[in-house]
Amino acid sequence: MNIVLASASPRRKELLSNLNFDFEIMKSNIEEFVNDKDRPESVAMSLSFQKAIDIANKTSENNIVIGADTIVVLDEKILGKPEDEQDAFNTLAQLSGKYHKVITGVCVLRLSDNKKIVDYEVTKVKMREFSEDEIKRYIKTGEPMDKAGSYAIQGYGSLLVEKINGDYFNVVGLPVSKLGQILYRHFDVNII
Ligand SMILES: Cc1cn([C@H]2C[C@H](O)[C@@H](COP(=O)(O)OP(=O)(O)OP(=O)(O)O)O2)c(=O)[nH]c1=O
């Protein structure tokens, strides 16, 4: 039995690596389809499941597969990864001075005994007010381009964040504590 992280995200890999247990990485390349009418929590959970099942079907059925998906939500509207720099600018301008939610859906499954747990974690993030000039300078760093909500709290984006309420790691891309509980309670995996 192996644990497989169904993710191309270097952030997720790093967060799991901090726990010093063996796992494999397999990159799922599902088409991320979002229906605007669904609740943001459902969207994040559904995408995490799609990533996990894609990889589960390509690996041993005894493996435990983990999928995750992070979205940023402002006034119930999902702000995903930016399409281009203009899109990143518009997203960051909307986030300035306000609270938003970061939701990460997480799915853990094992086909051999038909086990599937899907859950999510929410973290509230308050941005300080920033100017258009600051947004332009931030975009020039290149950091926003592959991040949900066009920022990275673990990087230069930390300069824009005023405070958070909830799990920091959830914002970076993986609700580590929740995931640990799922592995322990439902899959008998004891990391510590
Ligand atoms: C809000 C925020 C998001 N992010 C990242 C985490 C995710 O990698 C990314 C959201 O995109 P996702 O679609 O969740 O993940 P991904 O495409 O990077 O990787 P994969 O689907 O293969 O698992 O945004 C940060 O790194 N820092 C932040 O502060």
Automatic annotation (TrEMBL):
Alphabetized SUPFAM superfamilies for the sequence: ITPase-like (SSF52972)
Site entry (Important for substrate specificity), positions: 11, 70, 154
EC number: 3.6.1.9
Catalyzed reaction equations: UTP + H2O = UMP + diphosphate + H(+); dTTP + H2O = dTMP + diphosphate + H(+)
Keyword Mitochondrion: no
Main localization category: cytoplasm
Keywords, ordered alphabetically: Cytoplasm, Hydrolase, Nucleotide metabolism
Active site per UniProt: 69 (proton acceptor)
Subcellular location: Cytoplasm
Cofactor: a divalent metal cation
HAMAP family named in the record: Maf
Family, per entry: Belongs to the Maf family. YhdE subfamily.
Function: Nucleoside triphosphate pyrophosphatase that hydrolyzes dTTP and UTP. May have a dual role in cell division arrest and in preventing the incorporation of modified nucleotides into cellular nucleic acids.
PANTHER family per record: BIFUNCTIONAL DTTP/UTP PYROPHOSPHATASE/METHYLTRANSFERASE PROTEIN-RELATED (PTHR43213), BIFUNCTIONAL DTTP_UTP PYROPHOSPHATASE_METHYLTRANSFERASE PROTEIN-RELATED (PTHR43213:SF5)
The protein's name: dTTP/UTP pyrophosphatase
Species name: Tepidibacter hydrothermalis
